[in-house]
Amino acid sequence: LLSLQMEDGHSLFDYSVGLNDIVQLLVRQSPAVPPAASKEKDSELSDSDSGCGSGPSESDKSSHNGEGTLELEGQPGTAAQPDWTDPGFGLYKINDLVDARDTDMGAWFEAQVVNVTRKKPSSESAESCTDPDQPTAVPEEDVIYHVKYDDYPENGVVQMSSGNVRARARTILKWHQLEVGQVVMVNYNPDEPKERGFWYDAEILQKRETKLTRELNAKILLGETGDSLNDCTIILVDEIYKIEEPGTASPISAGTPKRQSGPVCKACKDNPNKTCRVCACHICGGKQDPDKQLMCDECDMAFHIYCLNPPLSRIPDEDWYCPECRNDASEVVLAGEKLKESKKKQKMASANSSSRRDWGKGMACVGRTKECTIVPSNHYGPIPGIPVGTMWKFRVQVSESGVHRPHVAGIHGRSNDGAYSLVLAGGYEDDI
After folding, report:
1. Which residue ranges does the record assign to the RING-type domain (predicted)?
2. Are both 76-122+139-168 and 171-243 of the same fold?
3. Which end of the chain is less packed: N or C, by CB atoms within 10 Å?
4. Is the CATH code 1.10.1040.10 the one for domain 270-321?
């Protein structure tokens, strides 16, 4: 369904309403004229009351300052973190190498603990604590770990609960060490099962070995909610890691080998030396200057600000759309405006012709949208359903009714066939 507000001076064909289209017309109500008293009242308003002042009011300043403060407090990693060596609680310490689970997709990623805090105590627990000098044990579920992903530094510092943080997996299990029912960490790609993906927890369901291949079927576990992917075939059977015990994280000085995950970009396979117009600049394909890349809010493609035409001097604060997604403001017709002449119609000869002939808005050479099947094309005599004396505005409507089948100007017959009808069809002076 398409709603259009029609203006005077245009026909239905200017609004792309085709022949035999079913339309619904609504009479537009004339706008109510405001009383004179309201106009006088509006004229008495000052610039500050009407919002035309040069500067914001004090209440606006305070509200904007408060919003900015809340945004800064909500952003992880913006505030200066205290230099703690041992917080005294929690299974993992600062600078420990851990695995952090992404709560959206359920996969585990390599990360590092940068800070350890605890949840704010409730009012009841605060009142029950009588001696502040007496040390109290902090339960693990109240501990919050501030982690930073190794491969995704652009995400900043992320706060994780204890259930989504564990010691980094570093022990590869051999084939003979795998057993049915064992929960291990495997590499799996839900979208492309035959390609390398991310690391998930999995429960081994079936283990088969032949002379040539080794097959492993497992159930992929997708987090604490209990979601899972059943009967998944694990391709990389030589890269299965053991889940470490809680509290056995590696220190930062340990040379722990990094796990290999699937590429984020399928076009360039995350090759930093290869230009790519999918994950990098959509114009030049270069991966340099990521801080000067601008993302389109419609297609999510990246563009260097100096590759644009014209180039930009800085990243804009408002929404930005690339040239392919941006709508031309000159082509947008607002409510109450006249239709804009298209470039195609301006180049037509009829637009600059001095002739006064009515071209019929294209109805003189339009094709049939329906065909009469009641009578044959060479039928003579009355047609069922068409009363005598019926009039049509356009010649093509006569052809669709089956009266004058060829919708051209001539009504004469042929050498072996008579006239098709006794209808004067046309609007040109040379048709008679």
Report:
1. 281-326
2. yes
3. N
4. no
- The predicted-structure confidence for 108-130, as pLDDT tens digits, reads as follows 998 888 888 887 765 545 454 44
Rounded CA-CA distance 384/4 in Å is 37
User: What's the token pair of residue 368?
Assistant: 């049939």
Domain 76-122+139-168 has CATH 2.30.30.140: yes
- CATH code assigned to 171-243: 2.30.30.30
CA separation for the pair 371, 344 (Å, rounded): 31
Nearest in space to 138 (alpha carbons), one of 96, 98, 88? 88
- DSSP element (H, E) containing 148: strand 143-149
DSSP H or E run through 70: helix 58-74
Using CA atoms of 153, 257, 228, 163 in order, give the dihedral in degrees to the nearest 10: -70
Residue 355 predicted with pLDDT over 50: yes
Neighbours of 309 (CB within 10 A): 6
Q: Return the amino acid letter for 386.
A: I
Q: Indicate the pairing of strand 143-149 with strand 108-118.
A: antiparallel
**Better pLDDT: 75 or 258:** 258
Do residues 120 and 92 touch, judged by C-beta distance below 8 A? Answer: no
Cβ distance 120 to 159 under 8 Å? no
